[in-house]
Amino acid sequence: MSTYKTLVLAGAILLAACAPTAPVKRLGLGQTPSAEQIRGWDIDVRADGAGLPPGSGSVAQGQAIYQARCLACHGEKGEKGTGPRLAGGQGTLASKSPVLTVGSYWPYATTLYDYIHRAMPLDSPQSLTPNEVYAVTAYTLHLNGIVKADAVLDAQSLAAINMPNRDGFRPVRK
Amino acid sequence: MDLVPQESDAPDSPRRRSFMARGAAASLAAVAVPATTQAATPDNLPPNVPQWMREPGGGFLNPPYGLPSPFEKNVLRKLPDQPAAFPTATRTPLQSLFGTTTPNGLFFERHHAGVPAIDPAQHRLMLHGLVERPLLLTTKELQRFPAVTRSHFIECSGNSMAEFKAPGKGSVQDIHGLLSGAEWTGVRLSDLLGEAGLLPSAQWILAEGADAAAMTRSIPLAKALDDALLVYGQNGEMLRPEQGYPLRLLLPGFEGNMSIKWLRRLKVGDAPFQTREETSKYTDLMPDGTARQFTFQMGVKSVITAPSARQVLDGHGFREITGLAWSGQGSIVRVEVSLDGGRAWQAATLDGPVQAKALTRFRLPWVWAGQEALLQSRAVDDAGNVQPTRAALLQRDGQNSIYHYNAIQSWKVASHGEVSNVHI
Asked: Structural domain of residue B24, as residue ranges?
């Protein structure tokens, strides 16, 4: 490219860079995801149960899965292990040694489903089927005395559970 | 000044290095610290001509991605001294750094299920929920959006948590090292939301990572539209894997875990999603047994990084007291330093430019003549927040909370020069 052409080009670029640009409404970047693509990634479960899939699981089924997949880190009854404590601690929150567990602290049972599905077991997250997640959720709640030994949970019954510490949080949005 | 034993880590002779640099093994030789070492010798001090001036030095691209001098091999991130079944974080060596930019290799790490190895060509960001047009974007498409570059700190809300109970025995790195600062480059989240079009009922946005924790937090829409960024650049290069490569959310001034790394999904909703991380984890338990939720902003805070715990002052005379100040609620306007545990205060100078929600370096000249001292720093931000004393913080939050500890730090300087962490 000749020096003259280079100069002209450089000048044009400078002019373009200095020219006021009109506000752009939309850039038109990106694709529109298909409904199937969204469905595959839209895994969250809200506090009110929105997002819970069809399926169900019992405490007994959950106990078997727990013993195979969860016990190694969370201990026999969810009270002792290398992983976070899951059970016990109710009534300790205002003490000098509060014990924060699903039963003593978690405000929503639905969050348990969301979290187990997205992040547990630690070595293979998102591997449990909906029935298995319902079952492990039921067993964890049973360890905390929140559902009975013969309980079976599905989307409706899980969302209806009122956790012991449901009113223990004060949103500040600071 | 460090208590870390100064090992005899002088590299091998320059003659050997320059020979190696000319050979095929040049890059390998530069990575390994030479096995044979020799103690520093006065032969390299005046009036003698140093050995490294007597022959050519190492070659180019040695290695192609440059590394610190082998003499800096102790400047590293570190895990807590106490071993844990599931380590949660590494800490930045604040005592060894200058200015306000944390080098990318020393930026603190916090992750909840390991660092994913993401191929950027196969990474996508999905934006859906209460929007007119759901979007699926590649990393390259995001990099075509108008970009901004801004300096901001990230601090883990659990930084300094042990100080709620008792003075930690470690260094400033151990105590306060879940803090780093960087210059970030990326896209305004508000631009992306404009591209998708928000529906009137939009109030909160769920941000989700592509790690094995599928780390998830709810972001208030006001923050998303204010100064939230989707960043791919950190200190001039692509994010490091442990910082969210190839894309992370950055919420300036908010607790670190909300700046979701490996960002794969944004879902616009009309209420907080009440994820595990914002109910059972990052909430602040008060003495009455209730918990504060959605305490997003990091409080105004400062810490003296030199002199600091585990250091020993190397002689009487002049030195600078220096440290870092920051606030999640705005810009630092003043830092005061006390030499006597908070009775008298003097204004420190601030290195400019002072930027909002960014680290600010402060300095105060000091002559140490062997006297005992209790060093403190106290920061004030432009929202009028004053860094509290530990007593005032405990009065407000009690000792069951483990997050958002921003109290004034006290370092005791003993007459023999040793510096330690004390609560007064």
From this structure: 14-72
| DSSP helix/strand/coil, A157 | helix
Whether the CB-CB separation of A62 and A136 falls below 8 Å is answered with yes
User: Which residue reads 């630690």 in tokens?
Assistant: A122
- Average pLDDT along chain A, 174 residues, taken 10 residues at a time: 46 46 75 98 97 98 98 96 96 97 98 98 97 98 98 98 98 76
* Comparison of pLDDT for B305 and B37, the residue scoring more: B305
CA atoms of A115 and B276, how far apart (whole Å): 6
Residue B136 shares a structural domain with residue B274: yes
Structure tokens at B286: 């008060």
Give the CA count within 13 Å in the CB-facing half-sphere of B11. 22
ipTM of the complex: 0.88
Mind telling me how many Å the CA of B250 is from chain A's nearest CA? 17
Nearest to A98 among B135, B265, B400 (CB): B400
Which of these, B278, B301, B272, lies nearest to B291 by C-alpha position? Answer: B278
Q: Check CB contact of A76 with chain B, cutoff 8 Å.
A: no
CATH number of the domain that residue B132 is part of: 3.90.420.10
Answer whether B145 sits within 8 Å of A29, measured CB to CB.
yes
Instruction: Report the domain count for chain A.
Output: 1
Q: How many domains does the structure of chain B reveal?
A: 3
Q: Does A38 contact B126 at a Cβ distance shorter than 8 Å?
A: yes
The CATH number of the domain where A106 resides is what? 1.10.760.10
**Residue A4 touches chain B, beta carbons under 8 Å:** no
| Residue A49 belongs to some domain of the structure | yes
Q: CA-CA distance, B217 to B68, in Å (whole number)?
A: 36
pLDDT tens sequence across B304-314:
999 999 999 99
Q: Select from A44, A167, A48, A67 the least CA-distant residue to A115.
A: A44
Indicate yes or no: CB of B293 within 8 angstroms of CB of A30: no
CB-based contact, A107 to chain B, within 8 Å: yes
Structural domain includes residue A32: no
The pair phi, psi for residue B392, each rounded to 5°, is: -65, -40
